[in-house]
Amino acid sequence: MSGMSDVFFLVMRRLRAPLITLITVYAISVAGLALIPGTAADGSPGRMSIFHAFYVMSYTATTIGFGELPRPFNDAQRMWVIFSIYLSVIGWAYTLGSVIALTNHATFRALLARAMFNWRVRGIAEPFYILCGYGQSGSRLARALDRLGNRLVIVEPRSERIDRVAIQDFSTPPLTLTADGRLADVLADCGIRSPHCLGLIALAGEDAVNQAIAIGARVLNPALQIVARAKSSVAKVNLESFGGVQVINPFETFAFNLGVSLRAPEALQVEEWLTAALGTPCPTLVRPPRGRWLLVGYGRFGHEIASVLDREKIEWKAFDPGSPGDSDRRLQHGDYIENILRDRNVDDADVLVAGADVDAVNLGATTLARRVKPDLFVVIRQNHAQDRVLIDAANANVKFVQSDLMVHECLQLLKTPTLSRFIGYLRNADVTVARATIDRVLAEVGEGAPRAWTIDCDAMRPGMFSALFQHGDEPFTIAHLVTDPTSRQERMNASALMLERSDKPQLLPGDDIALKPGDRVLFVGDDISRRLQQRYLDEPSTVEWVRAGSEPPRGILFRRWRQRRLKRSSRIPG
Amino acid sequence: MNLEKVIFGFFIIFACTLNFGFFIGEIDRPELHHPFELFAAVVVNLIATVLKFGDRTQLGATHLATSLVASFQLLAASMFWAWQLYVLGSPITSDGISTIVSLSGGALLANVFSVVLLLGETLRQGR
Q1: How much is the pLDDT for A48?
Q2: Are A38 and A49 in contact (CB under 8 A)?
Q3: What pTM did the predictor assign?
Q4: Which residues of A fall within a CB distance of 8 Å from B37?
């Protein structure tokens, strides 16, 4: 709805009675003063004019009090002025009281906040993301996106969470609204139809809420990128069947990654490195033993891990105090710790997954199990942000932190979708490809985690047009794209990881591959290279220079001259 | 009977009649147009305008617009009067009073529209 006019109409409606009172008070006072017989300048009887009466009442009623103007009053006039003063003070007190009450009114404040929010969102002239839900994952994702230079619009129904935004460290403060993102008008006010809106991320606590937000957003703007969290597989399937929504199930993703690390740990290593914070050293290979697995906690998290283990044909045992309905014989009920120590469970096990939804239980299980078997491979789950220090101190081999994983996955989907496709292909490819990827990045870029970006061979860009269509005898290759545009002999710290041509991927393409219109190349490298590489997209002269080694003529005269010369030279052999 | 409707109708019609009372009479004869009548018309018109605040319907918006027009015309007329009399210091001549009365004539037209809207609304609801 139109926010500002809501506020305006509410003000007008509420101030109707005070304004009419004020007009009446003024009318009575002015009329009385103008009707009472007064004394003219020469002492003869005469009345004060309406104009002068209004003047006197204007300064008297507002308690300014200039005195008796334009000439001294007689006593009859003074009596009337006494009366008018008290009358007008009451009138003003009533009016001001109403105005102050209005500004404290909850409805008015909510309307005003909404109107201001609406107005600010419409004023955003740069790309922004809408974030629904500001819990643990939401706040971490917000800060990550902020550091990457994106503006944010945050919607969260709980005001105490919204209040946290103000005290957190953002380079550009996000716009916030305390409202339910499931409502279509809330999403509309967040600027979901704005041409600057890049995407919507639904990270509310409940699956049903995320589902409603994602579907609403998809209907309002079908072209928008929508990422939603779904903690249950039912919600995930529902949303995926709706189409156009990218769904992340943190438990499933983690279990899936664990499965990848069982089969091809190198693929996971590439994923972790390429999506880590810039400059992070390459992580060590995590290779969990296949052996026997003990699962502490058999909720949604335990279920997902168990199903991956089943697929991998790995033996497992699970402990959970609840869920007696499940009749799997591998599942035991009762107190966790008691079960772990009984029947030599730990002695036989190789891996412990401490995946209960209580951090104390996970820590306790880890400590107890390690006392029995110190070299146990431990996967631990952290549930609450405040337990981070304790979980870190447990020094597990693999750590599952839902908010970490959500931030990771969301950033991949939002910022570098090509990279996440690349990693998807890598998981299914041979292990050697993953190993080759790490070697190539280490050799061509360096030790620290690189930045990833995509180059579109878009013929609409002037540089790319020149590269793809002009002087077609020498093709424009990936090698050209990694050449330093400031010095032709040098190679930039950038490396091509994948070439997508009509949706068919080519992993680790060679430098000599000629580019075609519509190609998409995934690069990793440092920031300087990324910025320098943009020149190939926009500057035909750079393209020509890197190809031929000479700066092309820019003026029309020189260009004609060169064209003529080229034509003549091409005619000689023919 | 609705008291709010009575008050609403009262002020709209009262604004129109006061306006008419000031307007009637030969346009260039100051003695036929009393300043107090203009004062009363201004006050009642202002009250009528405020009464129309906050109605978001199309009819309400038109109502408010007519009242705003009438109030502005009457305020212009009274300001012209005060300017002529006190700032320029000349008595109200036939030239001056005809300007004032013609301004109030415009306000009268707006007030008549307002009454027509009121009657139209009433008749529509009666059916």
Answers
A1: 87
A2: no
A3: 0.71
A4: none
Residues of chain B that touch chain A, judged by Cβ-Cβ distance less than 8 Å:
35-36, 39-40, 43, 46-47, 50-51, 53-54, 56, 78, 81-82, 85-86
Smallest CA-to-CA distance from A21 within A97, A88, A81 is with: A88
Angle at A527 between CA A522 and CA A531, to 5 degrees: 80
User: B53–A13: do the CB atoms touch at under 8 Å?
Assistant: yes
The answer to whether residues A111 and A7 touch, using CB atoms and an 8 Å cutoff, is yes
Chain B: residue whose CA lies nearest to A35: B36
Looking at chain B, the whole-number percentage of residues with pLDDT higher than 70 is 98
How many of the other CB atoms lie within 10 Å of CB of A481?
A: 24
For testing the chain A interface, which of B8, B10, B39 should be mutated: the one with the most A CBs within 10 Å? B39
Report the gap between the CA of A76 and the closest CA in chain B (Å): 20
Residue that has been written with the tokens 């089943």 in this structure: A310
| Single-letter code of the amino acid located at A207 | D
The predicted structure's pLDDT at residue B115: 94
- When pLDDT is cut at 50, 70 and 90, the band that residue A1 belongs to is very low
